[in-house]
Amino acid sequence: MWEDYVRTVEPYVPGEQPKVSNLIKLNTNENPYPPAPGVFDVLKNMDAVSLKKYPDPTCSVLVDAIADFYHVDSDRVFVGVGSDDVLSMAFLTFFNSDVPILFPNITYSFYDVWANLYRIPFKQIPLMEDFSVRKEDYFVPNGGVVLANPNAPTGANLPLKDIEDIIEHNRDQVVIIDEAYTDFGGESALPLIDKYENLLVVQTFSKSRSLAGLRIGYAMGSRKLIKYMLDVKFSFNSYTMNTPALLMGAAAVKDREYFEKTVAAVIKTREWTKGELKRLGFSFADSKTNFIFARHESVPRDYIFKRLREEKILVRAFNGDIIKDYLRISIGTDEEMRVVIDTLEKILGEFENA
Amino acid sequence: MWEDYVRTVEPYVPGEQPKVSNLIKLNTNENPYPPAPGVFDVLKNMDAVSLKKYPDPTCSVLVDAIADFYHVDSDRVFVGVGSDDVLSMAFLTFFNSDVPILFPNITYSFYDVWANLYRIPFKQIPLMEDFSVRKEDYFVPNGGVVLANPNAPTGANLPLKDIEDIIEHNRDQVVIIDEAYTDFGGESALPLIDKYENLLVVQTFSKSRSLAGLRIGYAMGSRKLIKYMLDVKFSFNSYTMNTPALLMGAAAVKDREYFEKTVAAVIKTREWTKGELKRLGFSFADSKTNFIFARHESVPRDYIFKRLREEKILVRAFNGDIIKDYLRISIGTDEEMRVVIDTLEKILGEFENA
């Protein structure tokens, strides 16, 4: 029977992308601000005739723009279809040991899915009670290390010196630092790629660059690491990044000023939101991301989630032992967050009076 | 040492995407005609603000448009980042037997690369001398069958009754028919997907839809096959198709009239080119694609390739035992092909007089 040879997997369920409008959508950590003005110009001037040709398989316009932004050489930059593509390619390329790879028990939900998909042995290390990573847990024999920093969905950040300590103890395997959220206040490990040949830093255009709709992720590391990834990538699919993504992505990364301005705005709104959430009785790890992962001291998570949804506010709720009490709330505009706080205040009040 | 755990592969080398202009580019089988007029409209009206949001992970606007075009249900359509993404996902999903999968020794050059990448055992079956597939070669125990039909890079087409005979003999494994070129005169196996639950038909927007630059491929098959592929896809990367690809792809597939008109134009030019190539001393299998795979009776392949390149005409030359004497010439516009024929006539004349 043909079904005997099918690879069956536990599929990841992404955050809802509702087709109804006038929702305040705070469930997938998108940026509330539009992409950089240069992206609008590129889109306006794009010629549909050019789409009959394959895109440049080396993605040089985008790779060079990223390299310029971070002051690294272009042969140390790898781009892919969102950081999921980049990370899964890195798992496939680098994690071929029989010894388990290590990552936290609470982290980005794709790591164990990719490990299962590629038959990579793995071990999930429990976080501390405050959601922090205990670095010594990663000082044991392993086939590789993956850390989201700041971590998802907790938002907690591990200081760069601890990250470096973990890399120091793992010179014989590849260490991947997944920095999807680092622009919102984390400390990037990027300065360490010159020192550690086995360190891969992965970032994305989906959050701080306001381009989730284009699907662009990238990795930076030693020439050797990037070369190995490119070899695997070219054996999958030579042309993954389409022409609109290459052109608009390059335009986005060139505008440092707009990037810094919008990131600062998100951070400011987040800090205001933290204060308000505390006032309303929520607790959370100190987020360095564009979301807050919070639980309420007395009102059940699912009640709040359901009532918010009824009020047309969409946030994210995960299942799982510890995190089932938490809501993940993406940071929107000031106006959106004011509506969220007012609505929460109303919902919590109703609950207490019921 | 971290390099001990790296997956090393033999990377596929794609056709050159030269950055110089005013070349006649006939090396990667792109369509010489622009995309459908609706694609221009969508591009003109696209709002860059929308790109801050993730695309619809179910890709419904594109999936539904493809389903409408082919009169199948939407849950029998899978879309991916070019047919390479779709095919590699199908290999990973369906080919998990210990018995080798089968495909021809001369065919699309990615099949053995994916098989190696995923550690899938495979056996390459020699084509007949005229580049045809002998169907009986596929009536043996195997872990799956993949056939490009029409085949690449030969252009030869296997009649649908032979394809069905092969499927009939392989009911217990998945049979993939890769129909990247079928719109140019092949017989699609699509009508058979209702009859055979294990048949997957794969096509692309890169050739007949003039959208190589957007990276869109798709597969059609039984609900079960598509469901298994979606599960694996969602465990890789939930958001592979970006917003521009979804919107412009849907617009392209909706215009049946333009599609039929441009495909007919390519076929007409191809038939004229065949006559001219014969007149100039070339021989080739009867192509049902948008390219001709031809060898010259007396002038060496590499000489012609080099001289064409000097005359700013780029075609494709593959290495390998039998195919090293052949040029693959994509079909351009009438005007481009007239230049190609005139140039070939000049080059061949020079060679004979040298």
Tell me roughly what share of residues is in helical segments of chain A. Answer: 25-40%
Q: Under CATH, the topology of the largest domain in chain A is which? A: Aspartate Aminotransferase, domain 2
Largest sheet of chain A: 5 strands, mixed
- Strand tally of chain A is 13
Strand order of the largest sheet of chain A: 2-8-7-6-5
Question: Which stretches of chain A of 5+ consecutive residues score pLDDT under 50?
Answer: none
Rounded to an integer in angstroms, the radius of gyration calculated over CA atoms of chain A is: 21 Å
Which two chains have the most extensive interface, and how many residues on each?
A: A-B, 88 and 88 residues
Q: What is the CATH architecture term of the largest domain in chain A?
A: 3-Layer(aba) Sandwich
Strand content of chain A: 5-15%
Mean of the pLDDT scores of chain A?
Answer: 95
**How many individual domains of chain A?**
2
**Helix and strand sequence of chain A:** EHHEHEHEEHEEEHHHEEHEEEH
Summed up, the helix count of chain A is 10
The CATH class designation of the largest domain in chain A is Alpha Beta
